[in-house]
Amino acid sequence: MRARDLLVEFPTVALDTPVIEAARLLAEQGLPGLMVVDGAGSPQAILPGPQVLWLAVPGYCQDDPALARVVDERHADTFLTSLGDRTVREALPAKPRELPVSDPDATLLELAALMARTRSPLVAIVDDDRLLGAVTLQTLLAKALDT
């Protein structure tokens, strides 16, 4: 099985997209992450869902989970409002990892190795600098379990 057999069209966002919009897209479509593209539509990064939470959850709650418990429920339920006008660019790691991009001829094992190495829930599939779509972790696992 090759990447071309597994790829699906996948939503993209730009670096300057408000991260709250990215969070809505993740939630509404049940996505594991989003592809971040430049103006030409070329993949620049993968934004995993937990990276949005990293930006939204106060640092003191990440450092000491017991502190999250002392925040009253009304305020705890609205933590995403802290994102304000922040952008996808701000949610990405300062030191980006290897970009999980592959070609349509990649095998299932090649895609799995790339996902594992980059810790990404999806791989962008590119041919001649054109984004064709993505292979998601769910699709990859489903196909690997079928064989």
Keywords:
single chain; 147 residues; alpha/beta; CBS-domain; three-stranded mixed beta sheet; CBS_dom_sf; CBS domain
Descriptive overview:
With 147 residues, this protein is an alpha/beta fold. The chain has one domain: Roll (CBS-domain), CATH 3.10.580. The protein contains 9 helices and 6 strands. The strands form 2 sheets. The protein has a 3-stranded mixed beta sheet. A hairpin with a 5-residue loop joins β2 (33-37) and β3. α8 (108-118) crosses α9 (137-146). It is globular.
Share in β-strands: 15-25%
Tell me the name of the CATH class: Alpha Beta
In the CATH hierarchy, what is the architecture at level 2? Roll
The count of β-strands is: 6
Contiguous helical run count: 9
Question: What's a concise summary of this model?
Answer:
Helices cover 42% and strands 20% of the residues. It has 147 residues and is α/β, with parallel strands linked by helices.
Show the helix and strand layout:
Layout lengths: L2 H4 L5 E3 L4 H11 L3 E5 L5 E6 H8 L2 H5 L1 H5 L3 H4 L11 H4 L9 E2 L5 H11 L3 E6 L2 E7 H10 L1
Helix pairs in contact: 8-9
Keywords: CBS domain
InterPro entries: CBS_dom (IPR000644), CBS_dom_sf (IPR046342)
Organism: Sphaerisporangium rubeum
